[in-house]
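Protocol step 4 of 6: structure prediction from sequence.
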Amino acid sequence: RTMEDSRNVMMVAAEQAQLMANLLKLIKGNKTIEIGMYTGYNTLSMALVVPEDGKVVACEINEDYINIAKPFFQEAGVEKKVNIHHQPALQTLDELLEAGEAETYDFVFIDADKKNNENYYEKSLQLIRKGGIIAIDNVLWGGRVISPDKDDVTSQSIDELNKKLHKDKRVDLSMLTVGDGLTLAIKL
């Protein structure tokens, strides 16, 4: 159903989903967050590899996308692992922090509105355990981050976060040219 959607370019690249699933296995990830679920392809990929008692917190504001995703979670038998939050992602992250879940998550994938990437990153850094991974999608943004136009707030936001991450001593960093660019930040 995703490919029928007019915004299907938002779907995570298959090689990114496979890489993230393998990283989750490698770090024995049990608790993960996806910021920007879209139609659930990557959420499903992560839910399939976390253990039976694992969970994927999926943040999505578009009810139509949630309704596309849910039957696939059920068909794959992972609906009990997926906890969908139909509200702004920052609200969900704040609620998780208020519930005492700081430093309890193994993996976070950020792929939502790019203007909030820095806010998502900072909240995720609080939620992730040492050795956990924050993956950020679209860090190359079709090359527009190299010299963003002065009116292109989205490209500017991505560029600013890329520069911040490069200097951030709280993480080890790798920027991969997979899909439209995927940054992996491992919390120290």
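Step 5 (inspection) to follow. Residues 153-167 form the longest helix (15 residues).
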